[in-house]
Design a protein that fits this description.
The protein has one domain: 2-Layer Sandwich (Alpha-D-Glucose-1,6-Bisphosphate, Chain A, domain 4). Helix content is 30%, strand content 42%. The protein has three helices and eight strands, in the order E-E-H-H-E-E-E-E-E-E-H. An eight-stranded antiparallel beta sheet has the order 1-2-8-7-6-5-4-3. Helix 1 packs across helix 2 (31-37). The protein is globular. The N and C termini lie far apart (31 Å).
Length: 145
């Protein structure tokens, strides 16, 4: 789902994960768990204003700053890419909000990535669908088993 206003848009995706919120939370806040689904290396300073940095397989680096933390239910961080490659989202130029809601023995995860330039929406929507819907769902289910 996208919600477009002007030249910026928001991407929202929802997945159900077969793991409790505490386990899903760890996949956003612990470097080893981040690497299980999102990147090959990660740095986390888990406090408001703290760093979230994830190096991807191809060497691209997502860098953000935590702005809200309410374990294990809600986190918000800024989002962008390190480096000066033309057309990349600059660090801190967009915001990702993750809400984790208990659902029986699992968790419903809602991700909202806002302030995404319309020109980047399709790529980021596809990326989040892959990383959330395939990689995070599988990694969290294995850990929870």
């Amino acid at each position: 789902m996208t919600d477009t206003v002007g030249t910026r848009t928001a991407i929202e995706q929802t997945v159900r994960i077969a793991a409790p919120p505490e386990i899903v939370w760890s996949f956003w806040t612990e470097p080893e768990q981040l690497c299980a689904w999102w990147g090959v290396a990660a740095e986390v300073v888990l406090e408001p204003g703290g760093l979230l940095r994830v190096e991807m397989q191809a060497g691209e680096i997502m860098r953000g700053t935590f702005t809200e933390l309410d374990p294990p239910h809600h986190l918000v961080f800024t989002f962008g890419w390190e480096g000066n490659a033309p057309g990349q989202l600059e660090p801190d130029s967009s915001t990702v909000e993750v809400t984790l809601t208990p659902d029986g023995d699992g968790t419903v995860l809602v991700l909202r990535h806002s302030e995404v330039p319309v020109t980047h929406a399709e790529d980021h929507g596809t990326g989040w669908a892959y990383y959330l819907g395939e990689r995070l769902v599988a990694a969290a289910a294995v850990r929870s088993a």
